[in-house]
Structures are given as C-alpha cells and as structure tokens.
Amino acid sequence: MIKKSCLVIAAAMLSNLSLAAEGVISIESPYSVKETADRFESILNNKGLTIFTRINHSQNAAKVDLELAPTEVVIFGNPKVGTPLMQCAASAAIDLPQKALFWQDQQGQVWLSYNDPAYLKKRHDIGNCDPVIDKISGVLGKLSKAATSR
To answer: Is residue 12 pLDDT above 70, yes or no?
Structure first.
C-alpha cells in the first residue's frame, strides 16, 4: 500500500511539472515518449553532440514491480557549449551535461522538458555571460522544436 501511495504522489508531482516547475521549459509533443526521445537522439547525433546515456525510468520502475508512466531522460552535451558556461560559474557544472526529460502526463499528453538556461543563470548567479546563456537557450529551443515538430 505504501508503494502505491508513493507512486500516486510522484505521478501527481510529475503531471504538474510542465506548468508549475520553476526553471523547467516543457514543450508538447505529438509523438510517444519513445518516439520523441528517439527523434531527439537522432538530431543530437546529426549535430555531432555527445549522448552520454539514455535512462528509461519506466523500465527501471517495472524491474522493482512499480508502475510509472512512460518517462525517459537523455543526458547529452557539447564541450564547446557547456565549457563557456562553467567558465562563467564553476557551480554550473552540477547542472551539466544537459538533460532532456520525455514524459507522459496523466491525460496522456507527451512532453519534452529541459532546464531553462535563464533559470541556471539565476541559480548560479552568473553575470556577464548573457551571450553564453542566449546560445544555450537557442540550441535547446531548436533541438526541442525539431524533435516535437511534425
């Protein structure tokens, strides 16, 4: 019973992430979680970005007899983009490499979510690095739009 209660609470928290989570940008996807993540990975590969790993949280939950709506994370990066951010503020390294979350809410809508670089700027008190933040915002926005567009 406790496991089921925790799962319900976690699902409720995750379903509110798209609109309520400070510092997270979420974009609707017309594709399944797997297809959206596959599309995103393909774009990363075509752009020459490094994919460090892909985590399927739903499969991991099933291995311990728990249920979780489709949820995957892709961890990726590019030292040409991430290093300048760390040069601006060493503490930004805790948020790198970049992560993209692919998830399905309780209504069945699929989302692609990522950390808002403007929030990272605030979180790490990054000053005098607006061009770096703008570049990262642009890259993440383009990647996400390409993965979720028809």
So the answer is: no
User: In this predicted model, what pLDDT tens digit does every residue of 22-67 receive, in sequence order?
Assistant: 899 999 999 999 999 999 999 999 999 999 999 999 999 999 999 9
Write down the CATH number for the domain with range 2-148: 3.30.310.70
Burial bucket for residue 99 (CB in 10 Å: 0-12, 13-18, 19+): middle
Question: Strand, helix or coil at 92?
Answer: helix
Identify how many contiguous H helices and E strands the chain contains and give both numbers.
7, 5
The string over 80-91, giving b where at least 16 C-beta atoms fall within 10 Å of a residue's C-beta and e elsewhere, is ebbebbbebbee
**What residues contact 120, with CB distance under 8 A and at least 6 apart?**
23, 85, 92, 95, 126, 133
Every domain of the chain and the residues it spans: 2-148
Report residue 11: phi and psi, to 5°. Answer: -65, -40
